Amino acid sequence: MTQRSLVLVKPDGVARGLTGEVIRRIEAKGYTLARLELRTATRELLEQHYEEHVGKPFYEPLVEFMLSGPVAAIVIEGERCIEGFRSLAGATDPTAAAPGTIRGDLGRDWGLKVQQNLVHGSDAPESAEREIGIWFPQS
Ligand code: RTP
Ligand code: MG
């Protein structure tokens, strides 16, 4: 089934100049880009985006990290692209993420309070539509 997924290149990825590399991998996999915009998040937007994590120990450092610079907000499209992008991204912890994945090839532990893991990808059709509505309310 054709799906849409919200992908974010997080502030670490944008700051390190890896936006193009992430887009290259998405396009090389065969997914198409439906929306693409460089954005600076707000606390309010992140509270919606990360609603499932509000109150967890890593929530505040995560928000500070996500506010630390611009992010590339991307909507991708394709058959099973939600699962497919999660597979391209690799495990949440970039140290443990398999080589060949975005996090495994390009990420590492920087000794900070939150995992700086370069990208976000929606994890289910419902969360994808919810997240796309948050980042691109006009769509
Ligand atoms: P994402 O939502 O960013 O695609 O990543 P994910 O599903 O693999 O990870 P999730 O559990 O949804 O957590 C969201 C983000 O919070 C940060 N995190 N840090 N213990 C920690 O230090 C910790 N746990 C989670 C990561 O940036 C993670 O991607
Ligand atoms: Mg998640």
From TrEMBL:
<dbReference type="GO" id="GO:0046872">
    <property type="term" value="F:metal ion binding"/>
</dbReference>
<keyword id="KW-0808">Transferase</keyword>
<dbReference type="InterPro" id="IPR034907">
    <property type="entry name" value="NDK-like_dom"/>
</dbReference>
<dbReference type="InterPro" id="IPR036850">
    <property type="entry name" value="NDK-like_dom_sf"/>
</dbReference>
<feature type="binding site">
    <location>
        <position position="92"/>
    </location>
    <ligand>
        <name>ATP</name>
    </ligand>
</feature>
<dbReference type="GO" id="GO:0006241">
    <property type="term" value="P:CTP biosynthetic process"/>
</dbReference>
<feature type="domain" description="Nucleoside diphosphate kinase-like">
    <location>
        <begin position="2"/>
        <end position="139"/>
    </location>
</feature>
<comment type="similarity">
    <text>Belongs to the NDK family.</text>
</comment>
<dbReference type="GO" id="GO:0006228">
    <property type="term" value="P:UTP biosynthetic process"/>
</dbReference>
<feature type="active site" description="Pros-phosphohistidine intermediate">
    <location>
        <position position="120"/>
    </location>
</feature>
<feature type="binding site">
    <location>
        <position position="10"/>
    </location>
    <ligand>
        <name>ATP</name>
    </ligand>
</feature>
<keyword id="KW-0067">ATP-binding</keyword>
<dbReference type="GO" id="GO:0005524">
    <property type="term" value="F:ATP binding"/>
</dbReference>
<keyword id="KW-0963">Cytoplasm</keyword>
<feature type="binding site">
    <location>
        <position position="117"/>
    </location>
    <ligand>
        <name>ATP</name>
    </ligand>
</feature>
<dbReference type="InterPro" id="IPR023005">
    <property type="entry name" value="Nucleoside_diP_kinase_AS"/>
</dbReference>
<dbReference type="GO" id="GO:0004550">
    <property type="term" value="F:nucleoside diphosphate kinase activity"/>
</dbReference>
<dbReference type="Pfam" id="PF00334">
    <property type="entry name" value="NDK"/>
</dbReference>
<comment type="function">
    <text>Major role in the synthesis of nucleoside triphosphates other than ATP. The ATP gamma phosphate is transferred to the NDP beta phosphate via a ping-pong mechanism, using a phosphorylated active-site intermediate.</text>
</comment>
<keyword id="KW-0418">Kinase</keyword>
<keyword id="KW-0546">Nucleotide metabolism</keyword>
<keyword id="KW-0547">Nucleotide-binding</keyword>
<dbReference type="InterPro" id="IPR001564">
    <property type="entry name" value="Nucleoside_diP_kinase"/>
</dbReference>
<feature type="binding site">
    <location>
        <position position="103"/>
    </location>
    <ligand>
        <name>ATP</name>
    </ligand>
</feature>
<keyword id="KW-0597">Phosphoprotein</keyword>
<dbReference type="GO" id="GO:0005737">
    <property type="term" value="C:cytoplasm"/>
</dbReference>
<protein>
    <recommendedName>
        <fullName>Nucleoside diphosphate kinase</fullName>
        <ecNumber>2.7.4.6</ecNumber>
    </recommendedName>
</protein>
<feature type="binding site">
    <location>
        <position position="58"/>
    </location>
    <ligand>
        <name>ATP</name>
    </ligand>
</feature>
<keyword id="KW-0479">Metal-binding</keyword>
<dbReference type="GO" id="GO:0006183">
    <property type="term" value="P:GTP biosynthetic process"/>
</dbReference>
<keyword id="KW-0460">Magnesium</keyword>
<comment type="subunit">
    <text>Homotetramer.</text>
</comment>
<feature type="binding site">
    <location>
        <position position="86"/>
    </location>
    <ligand>
        <name>ATP</name>
    </ligand>
</feature>
